[in-house]
Amino acid sequence: MNNPAKVVVIGPGLIAKGAHIPHYQKDPRTEVVAVSSHSMASAKEAAEETGVPGYYDDPVQMLEAEKPDLVSVCSPNASHFGDVMAALKAGCHVLCEKPPGVSPLEAVEMEQAAKASGKHLLYGFQNRFNPASIVLKRAVEAGELGFIYHVNVTAMRRRGIPSWGSYTDRAENGGGPLMDVGVHMIDLAMYLTGFPKPVEVMGVTHRRLGHKPGVGLLGAWDPKSFQVEDLATGLIRFENGMSMSIQTSYAANIGKDEHLNVELLGDRGGAETNPFILYQEKYGALFDAKPAYLDESFESDSHARQIRHFIDLVTGKAKPVNVPREGTAIQQIIEALYLSASSKQSVSLAE
Ligand SMILES: NC(=O)c1ccc[n+]([C@@H]2O[C@H](COP(=O)([O-])OP(=O)(O)OC[C@H]3O[C@@H](n4cnc5c(N)ncnc54)[C@H](O)[C@@H]3O)[C@@H](O)[C@H]2O)c1
């Protein structure tokens, strides 16, 4: 690309203003030309705050008028599907924030639309760019852990109920912590283990704290409009024999404000992502291995790295770190966990 690629952003809220817009603006290969929001007032305010020239209250109008090359979809979860489909139809490459829509049906349609359009659709699973994830992926691929037979996925918050946006609205968010923080760590676990096929899923959800007033570590949320679970847990059995246990919360009576971690148990070694450590048995002894030095290629800001990757991808300088089919697989797991929780029965995904 000789001229900077034109970027528009749909949903100019926290993540757009904190990560997407500034990282595009720092990269000479891209120029953010406009934002669109649900109201002209909020679009204008965000455009002025971020120094973006254009603003709209309709994403389709924006796509028609600005003819962008790239689109970041940062709108509330329930809008991801419509925004991604509109952006692909307009011939754009798309970076869509997690989750990949709010159901497997939506994820499948987005996957098919991306394939038909020939454009890239990348999901905002930036944890794959954390230094620990990069090193661990290499270690897993080199066979350091052997066969990974069990995974513990943790995305727990003590009182981390988001007080902004639509994170506690069932329809707008598609679910609670499972659809929000849980989806990140499930994605990371699936990525690190090579996306094995899930065959049986058991999930349980609880709402014990969110609907009552309490201390808010992410601001004061409204307990009266809290419609989602505050804790979800589950167990998944995979075709290759692996099992995965998941626990994720917005609020729980635990000792850490937030704990995001993927723990891999393999027959040659184990590992955790946060803090990053490898566990091995060698020479008749048990070892804990931690990286002593990570060079500058391990940029710690995973959002910055993700935006750079997206630009590299669309300029043909990189292969995608995630593909739409993986977003569909994640949504199938989440739907099965919710279905199992509501039916109080395990759900079979075997064909
Ligand atoms: N990858 C991450 O770590 C991460 C972190 C935070 C949020 N997110 C995701 O980003 C998305 C936005 O989250 P946020 O925290 O920035 O929320 P937010 O509420 O701060 O921002 C959402 C923005 O979208 C606008 N909006 C509302 N309805 C809209 C619509 N129908 N069409 C277009 N815009 C609309 C709002 O005015 C606001 O500007 C969510 O999908 C969330 O899951 C990802």
Automatic annotation (TrEMBL):
Gfo/Idh/MocA-like oxidoreductase N-terminal domain mapped to chain residues: 6-124
Molecular function, one GO term: nucleotide binding
Domain GFO/IDH/MocA-like oxidoreductase intervals: 136-271
PANTHER family hit by this protein: D-GLUCOSIDE 3-DEHYDROGENASE, UDP-N-ACETYL-2-AMINO-2-DEOXY-D-GLUCURONATE OXIDASE
Protein name: Oxidoreductase domain protein
Source organism: Bacillus selenitireducens (strain ATCC 700615 / DSM 15326 / MLS10)
